[in-house]
Each structure stands twice: as C-alpha cells, then as structure tokens.
Write a sequence for this structure.
C-alpha cells in the first residue's frame, strides 16, 4: 500500500465506504478520489459514527486498516502526512476517544501523535470556556429575567 493506492485499498476492504463516497461526491463523476478527501469526508465520519453507536464490528476493521496504513507509512511520507493531518487532527478532538484508544494500533498512535485523554480534556475545557463567556452569562441572566 502507498499514497497512490490507499483509497483503492480502503474501498476494496470497505465497499460500503465507496458507496458513501459516490453519494457524497457524485458531481465528480469518474475522477479519481483524493486521499485527503476520502479520509476526511468518508473514513473519519464512518469511524465517528461507529464510535457513537458502539459498533465494534465496524471499529475493529477500520482501526486495523489504519494500522496497516501506518505500517506502510514507515516507507511512504505521503501516507504519513495523510494520517497526521486527517486522523491525527481528528484524534485531538474526537468524541468517544476513550472508546477508540484500546483499538488503535501502536503505529497509528505514534504517527498521529495520540495522547490519551487529550481530546476529552480539550472538549471539557472548551465547554468550560463557553460557559464562562459573556454571551453565555448574558443568556443566563436574560433567561432568569424572562422567567420573572
């Protein structure tokens, strides 16, 4: 597997994802799908959806695929960059990250710079920041006044 063949390999292993791609990007016709588009718009959302549903029968093969990509990325800088950008950045904010971590392979974690708990911590800090914002406080005050 290499950067030029990763999309073909993904669609061979997961034909349903090819159908998802075609439904989303029908306007592209027979144009060859770009790996970044496929990972960001098809693979990552499929993994997100599987995590939300707690569907291990989908999570495990997708994580195995990512680990195969990560192993191949040792010799292919294009694959390495693809994982770092599309998967690594997503992992930094992923919901249900704690459910995914046990199934990610060691090479995937290494290339993506995965830090256990970071995404959860980031989301909590963002929620706290939003609660402390002026807008949030004004909204709360307005709701209190409205109730009176």
């Amino acid at each position: 597997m290499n950067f030029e063949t990763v999309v073909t390999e993904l669609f061979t292993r997961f034909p349903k994802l090819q159908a998802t791609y075609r439904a989303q990007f029908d306007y592209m016709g027979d144009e060859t799908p770009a790996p970044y588009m496929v990972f960001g718009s098809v693979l990552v959302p499929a993994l997100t959806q599987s995590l939300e549903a707690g569907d291990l029968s989908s999570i495990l093969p997708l994580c195995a695929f990512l680990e195969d990509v990560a192993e191949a990325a040792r010799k292919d800088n294009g694959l390495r960059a693809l994982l770092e950008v599309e998967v690594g950045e997503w992992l930094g904010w992923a919901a249900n990250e704690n459910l995914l971590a046990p199934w990610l392979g060691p090479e995937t974690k290494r290339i993506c710079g995965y830090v256990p708990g970071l995404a959860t911590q980031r989301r909590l800090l963002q929620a706290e920041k939003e609660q402390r914002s002026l807008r949030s406080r004004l909204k709360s005050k307005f709701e209190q006044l409205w109730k009176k």
The two ends are 65 Å apart (CA to CA). The chain has two domains: 6-115, 117-148.
